[in-house]
């Protein structure tokens, strides 16, 4: 035990010495895991309510996922997009079949997916209307990535620092404010881009009437409707993609995070209006659609079915039932297994998260809230064990 503690201490020192200090890490060195249970080098167990910030859809080392990745890695680990590969084609077909979208472009991350969507929206408008119709409306409190363009699309002033000049022609609408949106739409508007649940912005779900209004006004004015499903997608909210709950039809959908169960993989889905906007030479990537990542995505997507989505909703009910009577909890937000917990005044989410880590639970934070993103297939036993820790920490706070 002492030897392993020293080993972890040395690893942390090496990290501080050699890795750019852009993360405020918890004082934990994770070694291994299975499902929603992880271990450090001393053997201490942690219930994982973060799933790698929503990426490990089926938790750690899911057997079917491991088998799919291992088989593909031992067959062909990579080729460029100058050639066809079966896993990529099969994932594209599966996505189109499950969403009724028409075409897919593959990237590596949510930020890349949103970059692609921004490019496609502006090109669609340029091709049809010429220059000058390039404004994209996003929402205040949104988060769309950390590249210059996706930071520019992000509707939070805290991110609009240091890296000037940012990309122009973005406007920010207060979330769920239809009247404000009406005032922002103009002849220069080419797209409206939203998250149905603002994850990094505090796990805030949009008003369904607002989402439906965007769908309607975009159709009326030939404005593209983009839904950022980077965090909400792939079963996270209890639907394959969160927009499906509202009966709307986006023109472009972006997804990443949980799509490949822990490997870097993103997809941008295009409908019949946008499927031919980007053509030869106008966009590309070296690693997007990588066969190993695509094989992982096939393993994940093939198992996001009604049974799993029902389980996600049942887990949500357990969380709400168990936390609803805890006096330290002011409110619960989000959808499905994308959970935001607003704490009573005087309690700080960062302090609660740190105390949870000490007691064997890995949560996240978002703004002033505790954020939970457990694996979609977390067992009821693991879920309740993690909630036991969280509730005890809250009561002792």
From TrEMBL:
GO biological process: L-arginine biosynthetic process
NCBIfam families: argD (TIGR00707), PRK01278.1 (NF002325)
GO MF term list: identical protein binding; pyridoxal phosphate binding; transaminase activity
Matching PANTHER family: ACETYLORNITHINE AMINOTRANSFERASE, MITOCHONDRIAL, AMINOTRANSFERASE CLASS III
Names of the cofactor(s): pyridoxal 5'-phosphate
Alphabetically ordered keywords of this record: Amino-acid biosynthesis, Aminotransferase, Pyridoxal phosphate, Transferase
The organism's place on the tree of life at top rank: Bacteria
Organism (species): Anaeroplasma bactoclasticum
Family: Belongs to the class-III pyridoxal-phosphate-dependent aminotransferase family.
Identification of the protein by name: Acetylornithine/N-succinyldiaminopimelate aminotransferase
Pfam family, one: Aminotran_3
Gene3D superfamilies: Aspartate Aminotransferase, domain 1 (3.90.1150.10), Type I PLP-dependent aspartate aminotransferase-like (Major domain) (3.40.640.10)
């Amino acid at each position: 035990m002492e030897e392993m503690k020293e080993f972890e201490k040395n690893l942390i020192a090496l990290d501080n010495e050699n890795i750019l200090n852009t993360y405020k890490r918890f004082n934990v060195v994770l070694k291994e895991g299975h499902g929603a249970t992880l271990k450090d080098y001393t053997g201490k167990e942690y219930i994982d309510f973060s799933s790698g910030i929503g990426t490990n859809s089926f938790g750690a080392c899911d057997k079917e996922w491991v088998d799919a990745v291992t088989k593909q890695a031992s067959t062909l680990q990579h080729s460029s997009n100058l050639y066809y590969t079966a896993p990529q084609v099969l994932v594209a077909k599966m996505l189109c079949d499950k969403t009724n979208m028409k075409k897919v472009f593959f990237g590596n991350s949510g930020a890349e997916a949103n970059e692609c969507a921004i490019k496609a929206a502006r090109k669609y408008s340029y091709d049809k209307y010429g220059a000058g119709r390039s404004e994209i409306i996003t929402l205040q409190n949104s988060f769309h990535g950390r590249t210059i363009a996706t930071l520019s699309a992000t509707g939070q002033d805290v991110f609009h620092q240091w890296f000037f000049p940012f990309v122009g022609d973005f406007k920010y609408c207060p979330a769920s404010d239809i009247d404000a949106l009406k005032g922002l739409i103009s002849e220069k508007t080419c797209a409206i881009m939203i998250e149905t649940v603002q994850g990094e912005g505090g796990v805030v779900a949009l008003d369904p009437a607002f989402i439906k209004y965007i769908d309607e006004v975009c159709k009326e004015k030939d404005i593209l409707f983009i839904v950022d499903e980077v965090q909400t997608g792939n079963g996270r909210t209890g639907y394959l993609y969160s927009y499906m709950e509202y009966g709307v039809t986006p023109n472009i959908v972006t997804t990443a995070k949980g799509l490949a169960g822990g490997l870097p993989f993103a997809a941008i889905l295009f409908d019949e209006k946008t499927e031919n906007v980007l053509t030869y030479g106008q966009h590309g990537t070296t690693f997007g659609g990588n066969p190993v990542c695509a094989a992982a995505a096939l393993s994940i997507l093939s198992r996001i079915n009604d049974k799993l989505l029902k389980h996600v909703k049942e887990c949500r009910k357990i969380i709400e039932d168990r936390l609803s009577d805890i006096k330290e909890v002011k409110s619960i937000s989000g959808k499905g297994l994308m959970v935001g917990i607003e704490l009573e005044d005087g309690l700080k989410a960062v302090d609660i998260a740190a105390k949870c880590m000490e007691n064997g639970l890995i949560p996240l934070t978002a703004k002033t809230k505790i954020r939970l993103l457990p694996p979609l297939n977390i067992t009821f036993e693991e879920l309740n064990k993690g909630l036991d820790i969280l509730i005890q920490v809250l009561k002792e706070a």
